[in-house]
Amino acid sequence: MKKPLFKKVLVANRGEIAIRILRTAREMGIKTVAIYSEADRDSLHVGEADESVCVGPAESQKSYLSASNILSAAKKLGVDAIHPGYGFLSENAGFANEVIKAGMTFIGPDPKSIEGMGDKVIARKTVEANGVPTAPGTGALENLDEALKSVTSLLKTRPDFKFPLLIKASGGGGGKGMRIIHKESELKEGLERAQSESLKAFNNPVIFVERYLEKARHIEVQVLGDGKNILHLFERECSLQRRHQKVIEEAQSPSLTPELRAKILKAGIEAAKSVNYKSAGTVEFIVSEQDEFYFLEMNTRIQVEHPVTEWITGVDLVREQFRIAAGEKLNISQEDIKSNGHSIEARLYAEDPDHDFLPQPGNLHFLRFPYWTGVRVDPSVQSPSVISSFYDPMIAKVSAWAPTREDATERLRLFLSETQVEGLISNRAFLIEILESEFFKKGRYHTQLLQEKNWRKTKAPSAKILATACLKDHLQNQISIEARPLSTWQESLSALET
User: What is the pTM of this model?
Assistant: First the structure.
């Protein structure tokens, strides 16, 4: 038997991505450690590891975002490598440096690459030097008076810098510190609010402004590098979003011509080369209605939607991350990577699509997925369990593969139709509705489409349905409604009655 690449790996994450990494490590003969907060003591990912350790209370800042607590646990348990997953500390260059200083391996890119691509202003300049197109925009802005003058001046002197404009936080993402500005009278307030959000979310007051493309598509290129050789594993279509978060992703994109695809894939490789990228990463682009494309950002980590790429290429991205981190070179060439068939992923969440996608924490009484060929389920939870209000309310990722896009769509639709989620509101019906829509069948859609109301056919749950679920929740937990604050179900019912 081949000697394992590492003796013991700690996964500094939770939920489905922690489970995904732990299982791959086990396949590779590597001992594993799961971390958990006090609220996650009984979570699914904890049971997947050889060992587990509590790193703090429920609040993320005191547990999953506490680098000191995680490093202390890793040292105590004799860990020789840490995989950060996505989110939390995955793109924190300081954490990566501390892991390395402690004599452990960080399973991800070099801290310099994380830092270079983590600041969006620096990233724009870095990729521009390699010929990657970026949207017309400003440099770093911190002083609000100077920012207002700079933007106003550009509007007058540069024809391709025009409304609508997008204000973005330089040090983060996920929709935080982001504002769309349609006219000059909105500019001052927009700059103030974006900077305030950026400071609160990322402890970074730096923002920048760029041209905003309406009805744009979001295309991302999966890259894999060993520091010298860099390959692409084709692209993903990620334009279906709510609150700047993806809902459904697919590979390959159905909206690109062969010529445009070739240009975007080349630009993705060039962007990764600009930082001598080492590990799995994703280069994101925004594409206009006229097929102009611009660099958006680079995520220096594994992506939530990586399964669709694994489906069409047969490459295990997490396994490759382990290999590269251990010092091994890529053992595949660009010519070896072929795209086979089509894959679509849906993110199943405990959220209410009819009320601005409000998270629905609470008791998940029953969760059942059917057994189906060509479908992969990456679960975050099992039933019965509790969806915590402290974290992302993901239930599972469901991805399907088939020889054609039409078959993959139908396979995923049927699978979700037979999936059972009971005890709380989920977006299952919403996902099915998207897969059945005419715009999805045509394969051409944009990032704002889900916010448009005219494509939807279904209605919000009736008061009767909500009342039944509320009663079921009450009876199964044997609690007195008067004795406790209103549950999510009771609040929803109360809102309907008023």
Answer: 0.87
Residue 317 and residue 306 in contact, taking contact as beta carbons nearer than 8 Å: yes
Least confident of 154-168, 171-185, 332-346, 458-472: 458-472
Report whether 126 contacts 53 (CB < 8 A): no
Q: Which of the residues are catalytic?
A: 301
Considering the domain architecture, whether residues 145 and 86 belong to the same structural domain is answered as: no
Q: Is the dihedral of CA 265, 333, 86, 237 positive or negative?
A: positive
482 and 444 housed in the same domain? no
For the stretch 2-16, pLDDT in tens is 789 999 999 999 999
Rounded CA-CA distance 307/407 in Å is 17
Query: Amino acid identity of 32?
Result: T
Domain end among 211, 226, 250: 211
How many domains are there within the chain? 4
Q: Measuring CA to CA, which residue among 438, 421, 427 is closest to residue 356?
A: 427
Helices (H) and strands (E) in the chain, counts: 15, 22
What's residue 475's pLDDT?
61
Q: Are strands 207-211 and 179-181 parallel, antiparallel or unpaired?
A: unpaired
Tell whether 447 and 305 lie within a shared domain: yes
